[in-house]
Amino acid sequence: MSAEPTNNLTTSQNGIGRVPKLQPVSHFFLEGADFTQTAEQSFGVVDAQKFRTTSTVSFSGTKNIYALCMGTVFVQPQTVDANKVNLILKPYRQPVNGLSIKYIVYRGLQKSDFVASDGKIAGSETEGVGFVKYIWAQFNQFYAGEDADKVPEFLAGFIGFPHTAEALTAQGETHPIDQYFYKITLSDTSNPDAEDATTAYELPIVPRGIQLGTAIGEVGIDIILNQGDYLIENAPNPFQYNLKYARLASHTLDTSTLTDNFKKKLLRENCTDFLDIAAFYGLHANGAGKMYVDTQNEPLIEKSAIYARIQNFHSRNRFYLYIQSNRQRSYNFYNNYAYSDDNANDLKIGTSADTLTETTFATQGWPIHVFQQSQTGTQDVHQIALQLTTDSYQDAGLFVHTGVLASAQEENFVRQENLLQEATEDGSVDTNYTHPVVFTTPAMGEHTIAGFAQIIYEGKLFFVQEYAPPPEPDQPPLTPETHILKDIDDVFGLLNVRSSVVPAHDQQLPTIVDEKLQLINFPNATDREDVGAIKYKKVEDQLLIDDGSSLKRVTFETLLYRIGRDATPYTQSTEIQAENTSTGLQNSNNAISTSYRTDKAYFIDVKDFTDDLVKVKGLLLTVVNASISTKKMLGLIADELLVLKTLITTHTLNQTTLFFKKEYDQASPEGFVYSVYNLGVIAEDSSGQVLAFYPEKSIKVYTLDHLIFFSQKYSEFIPHAVHTQYSNYQIPEL
Question: What angle do CA 384, 224, 300 make, to 5 degrees?
Fold first, then answer.
């Protein structure tokens, strides 16, 4: 961060935190600025039952449509109009640092720009729209020098478009979109050098700003935020990112056809995966953004020029507030943030800390809060202030993922005295609310330029009751135990998911990353704690054990995104390098023992100890450079995870995470103090109630340092002195 120029940093009012400005670089998706948008075409809440995810604009005649960023292209037919197609662009290079976009869906481009009547790609290297000329040039280059009879026809299937009835049938509406972006092409095993010519050409990657095609009269666009490249098995959510969604002329989340209240709630959660195109381009008006338009070589940089491009959006002055809270759900999803039993409000919001109005978070029940209020004067920026409810517990914390803070912070973290208010003798301070958290956002005079903030907030203790099975006949009902969730309980999930990336061979280890950030505490050298925003991943591997068989294992690891450090001087620093791992495959160089390898500066120390006559190989997570760890890890064998996964199907559970039920702390005869936990799961049942479940046969996990947790079977075959004697053996990255 020290290399950042001053004008690319933001600073809180009292100078506590300096964080890099967002530096968006993208292309405006539509030619010119002469378009219109009605309220009925705009992104967002329609009513209590409907939320429009597609932003549609209208214009006269034909307009060029451009690639917002560099990305991979997948073309699909549109169900409403046979002469139109939809195009899905998966960013190859993200247009905004710190904002991960999964897909951009263009709706309503002219089919004739992409596909000829004979099913081939339209145009040529010298004719047609920019996209087809670009991919024709790539195709010709790929097959340059080949005999003509060996060059396949350049068919629409190479861009994903099903031109024939047979191809359309093969692309089922329920197929996930991910399935087509992560296609694995396998070679002929009898001739490894030969590849099936019909699948040799992968979906094309195109540069930012290329002319994708044209649209007549109107075009729609969806921006989908990235939560991870994986599929949830037997997901109860009524909405899925599949080809049916991809082919619509416009998409609206609609709860009116559902009768189950919990499924309605799940469907409403999906709106937080989408972003208004106007708010996306509004990010560019912060003084560090670059918006390229049409065929111009120089980008728009000035705020006034950028606002002129988006001022015809109906939503041009909306500020969207996204708040994620406990268990990666939206704020107050579990009805645990209401001010009191007789006051359902959970938010105060206004244009300054002195002008706050009490209300409920969300917009007509949809968990994105829209704030649109003119502010007097000619300010360059507007302020938006808010307070959230809290029980003032000591680990309450808030992290701003996207947005510019103007109130006290620690590198976008707000906690302790910056977050929690102190009671006064006269009772004038309402400690049921946090301190005001103040944002600034670009403005043009009295009008806020469309924008948004993404917040992660955990402001109250979260209580979970154990599942109590129905009592036996003539027996009293069981009294279930209630637990307060610990830091480690709200971290590891991904139990019943499968990666969108399919291994091509046994030496590729599936790695799944949950892209939704969470807050977690790490100890520092002052016996206090630093707070981190983390992602986590799950890695499957196998070890060759003594009898010649293989042991399948699963490792869960946290991945640091950002850390808020305790400001006490003269303390040992934490290792703060952010990690950008994504869902994918990790190659192993060993054909037999495919243990996961990483180049990160962590190693495992092994300390043998005895737990009630059971010999345990204890594990300690250590940082090579002797700094303090900012990682946590859990290791199980695959059979243990399978037992936990069975709970999901047995009880029809959703949003499942692992729960560490404390059993005891103990000193071993060898002199090591260790903690023992009984591993279970926390999940929503079919009605939405959050409960803790345990398998019939307990799964015991240990920890010596509260950084790495492990079962006895997981650690059994990890060698001693990994970092010195086994130079090629490395633990999974945390």
Answer: 65
* pTM of the complete model: 0.91
Phi then psi dihedrals of residue 405, to 5 deg: -85, 140
Distance CA 558, CA 536 (A): 4
Mean pLDDT of 536-549: 85
Sign of CA dihedral 195, 196, 200, 202: negative
3-state secondary structure of 733: coil
Helix ranges (H only) for 195-260 are 243-246
| pLDDT in the model for residue 687 | 95
Phi and psi for 479 in degrees, rounded to 5? Answer: -100, 105
Q: How far apart are CA 495 and CA 648, in angstroms?
A: 9
Question: What is the rounded distance in angstroms from the CA atom of residue 81 to the CA atom of residue 83?
Answer: 5
Residue keyed to tokens 């599949």: 242
Task: Report the distance separating Cα 246 and Cα 241, nearest Å.
Answer: 7
Residue 465, both tokens? 């009751």
Alpha helices per DSSP H over 194-270: 243-246, 261-269
Residues linked to residue 514 through DSSP beta bridges, in sequence order: 536
How confident is the model over 61-84, as pLDDT tens digits?
Answer: 999 999 999 999 999 999 999 999
Helix (H) or strand (E) holding 170: helix 165-170
Q: For residues 55 and 390, what is the distance between their CA atoms, to the nearest angstrom?
A: 36
Strands 356-359 and 319-324: unpaired
Looking at this protein, which amino acid is placed at residue 459?
A: G
- The CA distance from 450 to 443, in Å, is 9
CA distance 356 to 387: 8
CA-derived radius of gyration, the chain: 27
Give the Cα separation of 413 and 400 in Å (integer). Answer: 7
Question: For the residues 357-367, what does the mean pLDDT come to?
Answer: 98
Cα 237 to Cα 714: distance, rounded to the nearest angstrom: 33
* Cβ contact 326:458 at 8 Å: yes
